[in-house]
Amino acid sequence: MNNAIQMPPKPRINPALVTGLLPFIVVLAAWAMAPLISDIPAYKLPSPAKVWGTFQDMLLNGSLLSEVWASLQRLATGYILGNLIAIPVGLAIALNRAVAETLTPVLSFFQSIAGIAWVPLAIIWFGVGGGSVLFVIVNTIFFSSIYSTVIGVQSIPLVLYRAAQSHGASRWDVITTVVVPGALVQILVGLRTSMAYGWRALVAAEMIAGTNGIGYMTLEAVQWYQTEIVVLGMILIGVLWLTLDRLLFVPIERVTVRRWGLVS
User: Fold this and answer.
1) Dihedral angle at the C-alpha atoms of 57, 63, 66, 70, nearest 10 degrees?
2) CATH at 95
3) Residue 211 half-sphere exposure, CB side, CA atoms within 13 Å?
4) Domain limits for position 221
5) pLDDT digits (tens, 9 = 90+) for 59-99
6) How far is it, in rounded angstroms, from Cα 97 to Cα 131?
7) 167-208, pLDDT tens digit by residue?
8) The pTM is what?
9) Residues 83, 195: contact at Cβ < 8 Å?
10) What does the DSSP 8-state code read for residue 162?
């Protein structure tokens, strides 16, 4: 009888996690070493310790959370509004192939100029403040999502429509069993892409037309040579996007795509 005590298996380190973190560690090390091997003054490139201290101070006094919350609220509002309009309109357009082929170049045109290019007009129409920023976000998200939706429906083979109709499917059945599942992958790509475009448009619009938020905080710090706040703002923009992407879109894609049987 073997009475030897079996040790619990050692936890395995996820190789993907190590691979993902390694570039950030290299960048952080290079950032920390830069002032030591060059004559870059601190006001041009603050040290990681200085940025970390600024993060702690702003977190404790509540100013950082206030700016982050303002930006996230605008993003959520613009994202919901933009997609609530874009996806139904995109499906309606794409269901008529002639209309879709006519409007696709127009949608592509507006998608290419959506975002910061609208900020000057937004300021004229809505003034400096939240209204202009929200307009730019909705505009960016709308054109990104509607274009992806139309392309997704257009990519569905005609044979699938004919197969459904030959089995007596109604128009609503065709939409729910052919159109939505067939375009789902591209719609999800549009949802993810529009969030990324909307996030960048939000930050840019806050810098130019905002009165608060991460973009406004970052640009405001430039006037006082508070480079540590500028760098902190840049880091927050990247970290928040990675967090949103991993928490929202990765689980949604996994569950939704498998639900519709689009993966083997």
Assistant:
1) -110
2) 1.10.3720.10
3) 7
4) 64-259
5) 999 999 999 999 999 999 999 999 999 999 999 999 888 89
6) 36
7) 888 888 888 888 888 888 889 889 999 999 999 999 999 999
8) 0.84
9) no
10) H
